[in-house]
Amino acid sequence: MNEIRQEAPPGAASGSQSVPRDHATAVRRRYWRIAATLCSILILALSAYIVTRTLLTIDYHELRLAFQATELEQILAALALTAVSYLALTGYDALALRQLRIKIAYRITALASFTSYAISFTMGFPLITGGTVRYWIYSQSGLGASHVASLTLIAGITFWLGMAVVIGVLLVAIPAQIAELNQLKVWVNRAIGAGILGCAVTYLVWVSRSPRRLSVKGAYVELPGYRLSLGQIGLGAVDLVFAAGALFVLLPKGHGLDFPTFVAIYVFACLLGIASNAPGGIGAFEATILKIVPAPSTEALFASLLLFRIIYYFLPFVLAFALLGAHEGMRRWKGLRAEMHEDPEGGGRKP
Asked: 232 and which of 41, 158, 245, 341 could share a cystine (Cβ 3.0–4.6 Å)?
């Protein structure tokens, strides 16, 4: 089993020469953190303004009618697409465990992955909420904190690889449609997309040449090779596209968007949601969709967003807690049965 190892990289400077370099690095990181925090605050403030302004102008009678106008087929389709998206998320952990050369039953992997994502998507602070759930479940199978940290890191890489490739493909495939959204020239969009895909190919070549390690705060983890990296890209893309599909089928009729264009909008909304650091990107995600997606009425589009929040976030959140409760109850029952078998009459262990 591979564990995250605390060690200095080969050829690292030592002694007094490393002090100025370390100080400069710390200063740069501090400035980047300040810039990122200010950016998040700006996005949150702008999102709050847009959403608040929308809420003040909404006719709640029309909003209720918009809910009623949503067809059962739309809701069922959204539920099915959500299920596929979360199924792909369980593959994140499965691939990470394969890279770490750890064998765990898929039912345990699926439980840990689904519940950690469902809870962290809604509550936010994924390293705390999702990481705690993962550690609680995987530790029962003998995994230590270092293994769970490695797994979480590799799963995160899966998400970003998938998102990068989806963005790159869309920018190359439909640059004109995206140009209407971002106001860039068609050739600029195509060049950006080609650059992103080129970076993805470069990454695949880089990890295929020899074992590669990633350093995070002095900890090192071996990255997957190109075969597993291709699997990561596929899973990340499936997760993202099906999640976008869950919202797309809930949109009111007459929006006039084709699915690839909507996926581009969805990805942009997700990126702003991530940058805002809000749980599930709430606020920033909705503000982006409200500003970009055309709809017969604001009430109809807002109803679609609320239904999406319920289906993709709230229902999995509730199901996750139910599964965790059932898992803990079953674990305690098995422990009780084992004790009863060892001591059937309360007079000592069974011979």
From this structure: 158
